[in-house]
Backbone:
């Protein structure tokens, strides 16, 4: 089993725990069960612990926690959720606007490795109806090699034609950044395991990025 990456959904055999010196909200103990996935988040991790986010019933119920990688029994990646449009067409959520938008994107045959996260991804992976009428479509593009802004321009304009708002995060080996922010500004906020950093080149290792300033 590959080591999970940020935004992957993981199922754990054991209940997630709080970081040292912290306490998880009461709703986590009362409502989370092993049949529910956790979302891998960005934080410093190692072979003994993996940073995850716990999702509750309401939008306000979000908690940061940790699990042991050894307790993971299943991983679902964002890209695996868009691998087969026929599965989406048979989904109970097919009438929801985020899913309609997702089917449109699959038909476009985008040139990148990409997938769906957020409430739409969670719903597809669990069959739990967490999407709402005003839900956005959260997308993830995995892009390991540097790309010019022009490579994403047409795609970004096409997003405005979708039936719902779409937020796109581009993941590089250094972290993740907002596509819309990158296209409108010369610098971008890069979310890394060590925290957020404003950078000029989101593909450049942070040590080199800081050296070039």
Residues:
């Amino acid at each position: 089993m590959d080591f999970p990456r940020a935004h992957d959904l993981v199922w754990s055999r054991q209940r997630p725990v709080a970081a040292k010196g912290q306490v998880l909200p009461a709703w986590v103990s009362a409502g989370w069960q092993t049949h529910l996935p956790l979302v891998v988040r960005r934080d410093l991790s190692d072979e003994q612990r993996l940073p995850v986010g716990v999702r509750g019933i309401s939008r306000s119920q979000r908690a940061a926690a940790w699990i042991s990688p050894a307790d993971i029994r299943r991983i679902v990646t964002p890209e695996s959720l868009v691998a087969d449009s026929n599965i989406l067409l048979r989904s109970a959520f097919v009438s929801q606007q985020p899913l309609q938008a997702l089917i449109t994107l699959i038909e476009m045959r985008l040139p990148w490795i990409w997938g769906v996260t957020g409430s739409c991804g969670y719903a597809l992976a669990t069959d739990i109806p967490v999407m709402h009428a005003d839900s956005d479509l959260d997308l993830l593009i995995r892009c390991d090699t540097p790309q010019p802004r022009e490579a994403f321009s047409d795609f970004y304009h096409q997003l405005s034609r979708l039936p719902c708002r779409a937020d796109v995060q581009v993941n590089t080996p250094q972290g993740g950044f907002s596509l819309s922010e990158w296209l409108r500004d010369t610098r971008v906020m890069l979310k890394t395991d060590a925290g957020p950093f404003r950078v000029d080149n989101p593909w450049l290792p942070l040590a080199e990025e800081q050296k070039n300033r």
Q: What stands out?
A: Residues 97-107 form the longest helix (11 residues). DSSP finds seven helices and eleven strands in the chain. The chain has a mean pLDDT of 91. The helical segments are 26-31, 85-89, 97-107, 118-126, 150-159, 179-184, 206-211.
